[in-house]
Amino acid sequence: QVQLVESGGGLVQPGGSLRLSCAASGFTFSSYWMYWVRQAPGKGLEWVSVINTGGGSTYYAESVKGRFTISRDNAKNTLYLQMNSLKSEDTAVYYCNARGIINGYWGQGTQVTVSS
User: pLDDT at position 101, please?
Assistant: First the structure.
């Protein structure tokens, strides 16, 4: 059974930090490019960051570049997103997404709220 389970969300003040994790199981994690995607209240899905299978290539949306860092540990089947200098506009549900050549998987999401 395929599972992607996000954790690490919560309430943080502007300027603070959070580290999201996404634990994968039931598929060959190391063979999939992994994405973080978020959805702010009342808005559509927004791509945040992506990392290739080996972890050597990463890409970021302009809105988070320089503040967020994506990484993965293939030995632990886990994806991470380190989020620093958080802003109110980062408030959203954050999803991890595995994308293969012919299929893909989504987690259930974790809520991140940035507010004073």
Answer: 84
